[in-house]
Amino acid sequence: MNHITLEVVTRHIWQEYAEEADHLRHNQEEVKEIYAKRKETIERVFADAIEKHGMRWTTLRGLKKLSMQAMLTFAALNLKKMANWTWRSPVRA
Asked: How many CA atoms lie within 13 A of 37 on its CB side?
């Protein structure tokens, strides 16, 4: 008596897109350069928010209150960034 064994491989519905994104990110030189700058820009902002602006933990409860705190924190970070751009000393020729 022969028994047929079937194996089912399950993949997330978007797995193909995730694999394509990984392929593009790791295999194109210009994308590698942009991705390398991520740690200097985006990741730095989140690190500053955690270390300097109280985003590591909160005493607030509820999604609405936490969202408000996050929006105010990142608004403050954006204002600081704009102030630094404005107040830089002029470049001398």
From this structure: 5
